[in-house]
């Protein structure tokens, strides 16, 4: 099968790659570009571990084709910190121990970032429904919700 | 072992604090490398062909077409994994589970595998493999499988543990029995007796990271395996034995692990990946799909349990009896045995008897799942205990307090207890504000207790002091939930230095002596003991170096708060030497300073928890929501309390999913109908409330800090606590887990019809 | 001399008796003497037997001494999650 040439922007950098027409954005990120922060937990859009933001929209990268990234702006976990400065969500996840095994963490951080950008002062219920597309099997979500609440407070003050 | 593990009742400066975990930064930036995040030059993609049949003889496998496909580098079947198990039945079963040898025993059983240049080619190659099956009758239900007319899964299995060897083979592999006293006499003394039967469905550990590995076998017999596992030393032994490799030549590196919960304690695809690599002569990466994870790895037992408990009018239990049937998948296990041991462990009983039956079914091989077998037994027992309390007109907590086991009680599984926490957790629950909070219509409150043994085991740790005075700690127990943080705290505590000066890693199998896997809640219990011991050995050297520097006898040097101090009037003018001072001079005082420890961390402390749960049941739909949840559990000593809370919350959440949603659903054709997260629904964020925790600390006498192990007990009470809450909300006793909306509606309908 | 109690299934291969008086100084000697007396126990020992001494469970420390008068209870060696 002939490859598709794609020009896109990932975490602010211009990126070009060739991919197969049936190849997912997740596979492109992980296998072609070495960006393994997005994880494949299911491959069917049910777990959210592969969450990325494409043109301001939160998506499961396992449900997006690599070819669809053409001309778009893709944000992944690898671009969340600014230099050595962690994003407040990253810092609060650490402080609240909002991760145990950590496999779901990149997806949660991306989804929470998207949530807080759209709703800077979410209620607990809004956080819970906003993150309902991301599965975590370790924490019972308690510490994740608290970390997002705390980060929202910090970001509002900033 | 010259190490004294006894509890010493000391004060702490680092232990008990809540610093940020050392591996955290990599995990929030996406840099942490899990099983599928590692690559080798020239690596191939491995894929496994799986049986679509629940039970079938494999008559022939033709791989010739697949082998001819361009880009395919190796195709293997069971022939490429010859039986080297030398009569070791448990290993033979692991081998057969990795790749079916004569029969496919469940939907999803591996029958062949390929390695190809990319995933697409590998998938195409699987379609070209022709397998001729002779489909056999199958059985997936635990009760049906135990019937004498059920399809036989293994005609070489005769029930063990019977007084006379049975004449005919059976799917019941073993009968086990525990208890003491005379239950007949006890029931005769009872004023009230409740007897009920329960069922629980099979669940999966549901780790978000699928099994993944990269295997590389060289022609000279050396090999590397990168893998997500709870025990890389155990994986090394399994793989070396199954592949005929020398253990020391197989280097296994444990990746970051994306959840295990017992499901990553023995090998599945790893021997297949190694065999593919050996045949192809190239590294092979093998990652399971989610569908494969559900169909072929993991699950816990499905169960069928009968419980009978009698009590007299004053609320004393006079007798307790349970019969437990647990599914094992198609290979013998000891799952009912564990259920039979744990079922009544919370109580002080004069007369108790439990009988377990292990049952073969055409489902995936049962694997451990967090306090394996205990949650189902607790569900059945705690449901009857609650019902009996009602019958007696006693408060559910008071009834349990009256009958709770205590120090000196003979446990239902045999030994007499030392100091234990069941009573204190019940007292804490009794006075918890949660118990007094008001409830609305259709809401109910339930509570239940749970028990787990906790394990220790073989453990080896290295502690190396750098010339700058920082410390690297290499442990061999895989970190599944923050143990690198807790073990760094332990090293800091012992050496008297700051937590930030310690960096803990999980060493690979070539860098450290053998370690048992991280199971049985042993990670922090065992490796903290080894770390304390290793630090003690390092301190001995630090004192020697200080003595040498000062030219005084080592006996006059003590170690206090991170410093060597010369003890005695005559040394008044000697300023203490810090760890940093001694480390900086180490090149001139005898070379590197390190502490090593190898030990068997035995004497793990048993652990108890009591949970409180409020639910709201919608009588129209049968849908149930947990609206408040509280966990009270004895930790012995919480080394890093935040991660202890995390274990409590995580176990409760898994228990809630098990209680209300999660189940393996098999069709009449013996195929799993819901092998994905859409249809096998684990709790999501919007399903759950905050999960409150209360840590009790009743020291384990067999650990210097009193640590018991905290990982598993928290999944034991939820099934029962929620069932009791549902019963209190809508007045029906739920006897089948999960309590999904259709089951609750059916129970409500049956109640209305009377 | 210590008194050793076997769990239900194990006593079936030890002459049907749950309690046994055995002269043994540590777990290793206990296992050796049990196997001498009841060869049927050997496969169970190979598969794993844990020993509770006064309520504390030892799974691997075969050198553990058996104090006179201690309560010794044999249990299956279990799997964890």
UniProtKB/TrEMBL annotation, chain A:
Segments forming domain 2Fe-2S ferredoxin-type: 4-80
InterPro entries assigned to the protein according to its UniProt record, in alphabetical order: 2Fe-2S-bd (IPR002888), 2Fe-2S-bd_dom_sf (IPR036884), 2Fe-2S_ferredoxin-like_sf (IPR036010), 2Fe-2S_ferredoxin-type (IPR001041), 2Fe2S_fd_BS (IPR006058), Beta-grasp_dom_sf (IPR012675), Diverse_Oxidoreductases (IPR051452)
Domain of life: Bacteria
Stored SUPFAM superfamilies: 2Fe-2S ferredoxin-like (SSF54292), CO dehydrogenase ISP C-domain like (SSF47741)
Keywords: 2Fe-2S, Iron, Iron-sulfur, Metal-binding, Oxidoreductase
Pfam families: Fer2, Fer2_2
Keyword Iron: yes
Presence of keyword Iron: yes
Record-linked Gene3D superfamilies: 3.10.20.30, [2Fe-2S]-binding domain
Name this protein carries in UniProt: (2Fe-2S)-binding protein
Source organism (scientific name): Mesorhizobium argentiipisi
TrEMBL record, chain C:
CDD domains per record: Ubl_MoaD_like
Gene3D superfamilies, per database record: 3.10.20.30
A Pfam family it matches: ThiS
InterPro entries per the UniProt record, alphabetical: Beta-grasp_dom_sf, Mopterin_synth/thiamin_S_b, ThiS/MoaD-like
UniProt superkingdom: Bacteria
Protein name: MoaD/ThiS family protein
